Amino acid sequence: MNWDDETAPAAEERIVGAAAEGDDQAVEAALRPKDLAEFVGQEKVRQQLDLVLKAARQRGATADHVLLSGAPGLGKTTLSMIIAAEMNAPIRITSGPAIQHAGDLAAILSSLQEGEILFLDEIHRMSRPAEEMLYMAMEDFRVDVIVGKGPGATAIPLELPPFTLVGATTRAGLLPPPLRDRFGFTAHMEFYDPAELQRVIHRSAGLLDVEIDPDGAAEIAGRSRGTPRIANRLLRRVRDYAQVRADGRITREIAAAALRVYEVDSRGLDRLDRAVLEALLKLFGGGPVGLSTLAVAVGEERETVEEVAEPFLVREGLLARTPRGRVATPAAWAHLGLVPPQAAPPGGAARPGATGQQGLFGT
């Protein structure tokens, strides 16, 4: 059970969005695992990180700097807190956007204690001057503080206590090579498979004192887009439904009914995802169509369609980006129960929605 945060340009808060918003952050704090043994999924990362931390403890030294990359909601923040717990060290949390000047970073670094963990979320969004100061801090545990301006400016070296930097990024490609190379351990967080998400859901249900069937957990896991944060959010919404409209126990039927109310279909698509697919299929015959035209058709900003809806649709194999524009795949036609134009019977036109396929939300 693991999750993190990143801001996306969504037009509205989405129940299947991976950003931590509102009361999510407080709930996550209660549900987060406290050590590597409790951490679900990411088996290779867990094993490798366990070796790094155990070796550092045996040497009585601070752990190497750690870089965690991956999509929002997969556990980067959780792992940073586990690193601090495993090393029995305090943790300082900040983010790249909050560090816009080298002086901001110098103030944070100069106040660190020996062995402290500095968690820097969205490290790819840090300013370039601060980034360059971080190179020396990571490698030599010192920074040069510039005093004065112009010809009379003086660089005063400031020694830092040994510390461990844990950087998190959703876009590792934006990190300059000199910064990436200074991390002793780099890990990429993968999306979770349904079986791992079921374990996440069962553990969270126990902490929330919610009774849930294995089939109910499987239903929620299948709609969670491979992301623990989304799985936990859907669990809480299904819990509410079960409490108000049933006996409080979550079964497959209750989970499916609850998620129909919240417009999350059998593959985890929500209103925005389906609007994009329906416009692409019904208005443009499956494409290709330009991104701006598609955005206008669904009444959203271009950036919202490109950065919020498209990544999951592409990952699910429902939409393809081509040089000519966006194109729907055969799986998209099947998922919406529509007949692609080329599949129309001889002598007849394709009739959108004419197939007898199962409804959008499943059972």
TrEMBL record:
Residues 343-363 are annotated as: Disordered. It catalyses: ATP + H2O = ADP + phosphate + H(+). ATP binds at residues 31-32, 73, 76-78, 139-141, 182, 192, 229. The keyword Lyase does not apply. InterPro entries: AAA+_ATPase, AAA_lid_4, DNA_helicase_Holl-junc_RuvB, P-loop_NTPase, RuvB-like_N, RuvB_wg_C, WH-like_DNA-bd_sf, WH_DNA-bd_sf. It is an enzyme of class 3 (hydrolase). Keywords: ATP-binding, Cytoplasm, DNA damage, DNA recombination, DNA repair, DNA-binding, Helicase, Hydrolase, Nucleotide-binding. It comes from the Bacteria. DNA binds at residues 302, 321, 326. Residues 62-193 form the AAA+ ATPase domain. Residues 266-363 are annotated as: Head domain (RuvB-H). Its main location: cytoplasm. Has 3 domains, the large (RuvB-L) and small ATPase (RuvB-S) domains and the C-terminal head (RuvB-H) domain. The head domain binds DNA, while the ATPase domains jointly bind ATP, ADP or are empty depending on the state of the subunit in the translocation cycle. During a single DNA translocation step the structure of each domain remains the same, but their relative positions change. The RuvA-RuvB-RuvC complex processes Holliday junction (HJ) DNA during genetic recombination and DNA repair, while the RuvA-RuvB complex plays an important role in the rescue of blocked DNA replication forks via replication fork reversal (RFR). RuvA specifically binds to HJ cruciform DNA, conferring on it an open structure. The RuvB hexamer acts as an ATP-dependent pump, pulling dsDNA into and through the RuvAB complex. RuvB forms 2 homohexamers on either side of HJ DNA bound by 1 or 2 RuvA tetramers; 4 subunits per hexamer contact DNA at a time. This is Holliday junction branch migration complex subunit RuvB. It comes from Streptomyces gulbargensis. The lineage of its organism: Bacteria, Bacillati, Actinomycetota, Actinomycetes, Kitasatosporales.
